[in-house]
Amino acid sequence: MHRTLHILTLWHPTFAHGAYTAPAETPTLPEDATLGDAILGGEAIYLAAALSALGRTYVQAVAPHFPDDTAHGWAKIWTQIRSKLGQEPEQAGTPKDVLRSLGRAGIGVNHLVDPAVLAVTATSPHHAFQQALAMDECVTPDVLCVGPGSGATMVQRVLQTNIPVAVAPAGYPGSPSGIRRVTCTYDGSPYAQQALRVATELAEGLDAEVRVSTTTPPPVDDADTIVRPESATTPVLDAGCELVQGWSGGTVLVAPDGDWSMQDEESTAEARWLPEELLVFGHAPTGDDAIQWETESRRFSIPYVLVPQADND
To answer: How many domains does the chain contain in total?
Structure first.
């Protein structure tokens, strides 16, 4: 069964181009931190392009105009001069600039919703999503795409829309060949089951397979990698695989991975991930685990999905 997916992403000229270079050092987070420290970045457009490369997936973009987007004083004069010289800069909330940017990222017109651009006036990215979702022209999205930045609180506000949020890591280059595998961390809890259901629906729309994994972060370095002839599994992960089979009617390929082991001594830590991978969190990493998961995501360019609680707590 092939499911139709709708993606809602955010475009603004200040973060529409290029990918930002991630810091070399390991990020430091407070002990009670949770993953979700992202909101802006051109990487969001690349992630939307990866999600819409295959399958029946369609993209709609929010183009906000923020209060400080209006040029004043010398900035206004310089903008006018550039316009007269034929160097007109991209303007916030301008559909033609958004469409040009989406096209450069590889999103074809056959994967755009009509209308493709929702221009809004907003005070923040979160407010922009709220404004867009309230519009009659907005097609109800299955996932919201954001990019790297700062402000876990902002992402939590976006999650209050009760729509899963896909976060592209800093420097995410995109995946022209689409997403081939959706990995979901799973511990059998009600929240994990909810997240696994989201992972299954995403896989159906993306023509991808599902991997049901442990919630323990995988080793980042080769030295810590376990080598086994076959990956270890547990009854919990096996039960998760059965859920995926039932929800998809057996149309989605699914396999468990209990310890992130390698089947080949020549493998590297990077081989644990496909270049076309999407990670769905079925748990809320905190403390050292959150740091390790964030490091894994950035080092191997793995976008991840955060799923809102069913009761919105």
So the answer is: 1
What whole-number distance in Å separates Cα of residue 203 and Cα of residue 218?
Answer: 22
Residue 312 lies in a domain: no
pLDDT in tens, 108-140: 889 999 999 999 998 888 888 999 999 999 999
Q: Which residues contact 208 (CB under 8 A, 6 or more apart)?
A: 178, 179, 180, 181, 182, 202, 252, 276, 278
Mean pLDDT for 156-183 is 87
Summarised one tens digit per residue, pLDDT across range 35-67 is: 433 444 578 899 999 999 887 889 999 988 887
Closest CA to 269 of 303, 227, 233: 227
Q: 39 and 151 in contact (C-beta within 8 Å)?
A: yes
Residue whose entry in the numeric block shows the structure tokens 């999205």: 141
Range of the domain at 20: 5-306
Q: Domain for residue 174, yes or no? A: yes
Are β-strands 143-148 and 165-167 bridged in parallel, bridged antiparallel, or unpaired? parallel
311 assigned to some structural domain: no
Q: Give the pLDDT mean for 200-210.
A: 94
Give the CATH number of the domain where residue 259 resides. Answer: 3.40.50
Question: Three-state DSSP class for 94?
Answer: coil
Which distant-in-sequence residues (6+ apart) come within 8 Å of 147 by Cβ? 15, 38, 39, 40, 41, 42, 43, 44, 45, 47, 167, 168, 172
Cα gap 18→41, rounded to integer Å: 8
Q: How far apart are CA 156 and CA 144, in angstroms?
A: 12
Average pLDDT, integer, range 71-78: 47
